[in-house]
Prior knowledge:
Elements: H1 4-13, H2 33-36, E1 71-78, E2 81-92, E3 100-109, H3 111-114, E4 120-128, E5 133-143, E6 146-155, E7 160-165, E8 168-174, E9 179-180, H4 182-189, E10 200-205, E11 210-225, E12 228-237, E13 253-259, E14 266-273, E15 276-286
Parallel strand pairs: 9-10
Antiparallel strand pairs: 1-2, 1-15, 2-3, 3-4, 4-5, 5-6, 6-7, 7-8, 10-11, 11-12, 12-13, 13-14, 14-15
Amino acid sequence: xxxxxxxxxxxxYAAMEGCIVAPxxxxxxxxxxxxxxxxxxxxxxxNLPASRxxxxxxxxxxxxxxxxxxxxxxxxxxxxxxxxxGTIKIxxxxxxxxxxxxxxxxxxxxxxVDTFYRVRNRIESFLDLNRQASVGYRKIQREGRRNRDxxxxxxxxxxxxxxxxxxxxxxxxxxxxxxHDPLSAIYYLRTVPSFDNGPVSLxxxxxxxxxxxxxxVLGREAVETPLGYFNTIKVEPSIEDMEIIxxxxxxxxxxxxxxxxxxxxxxxxxxELYFGSIQAILSDASLGTRDD
Length: 292
């Protein structure tokens, strides 16, 4: 998120990228997926050079398409100019419980952006694949002079979620079963066997409201990354008014490119807003081990 001074910097530097931007004072754009995570284009490019086909080292695919120790690293850009980097990492299963994954995303602005708007954000989510739901969420937001901590406490027995900001309970809402937080929703998409049967619906909450998010497939594309080309499935979640992904930002769009294979790794994420686009592109990766 950049403040008014960034608009002047944009004029001087043409197209600068950023982790999180806001061109007008008072405009808010939340950190999402590390960059997530943090985020259109043509049909699949034919006859890609074999030497540039993207490859990610790893062992056999686990029952879940991701495993403990998986770490995805991204360059974050505003337009074409680098402005930071992000990671998404599965650090451990909660208390060693099989099927529960602790997903941690971070986003950091680079040295240039630090000179006028320093970003150090961290989001954590606990995804329970047995329950097909989130069982915990925390966002630590450090942007410029703004410090904010957000926690979502899930009570699946009572179908309730409590929103806590900076240590104070703000509200409690009723949610449907199998509800996700914004980060666990993205990773749960990776478990969908096929996107060929129409849109995928997910229950997602930001602690203020509960949403039914529809994820539709826009097509298949070849995406170029620093690791090479990847054949991908391009999807678009309907996220209007979604707090924590976009903070009530009208007309904001999010696109995610997942590898067109069993792993469904997000190799690119892109948000389009009226002041430009922000995207995260996979730059490096290490895959995890099976959670037995």
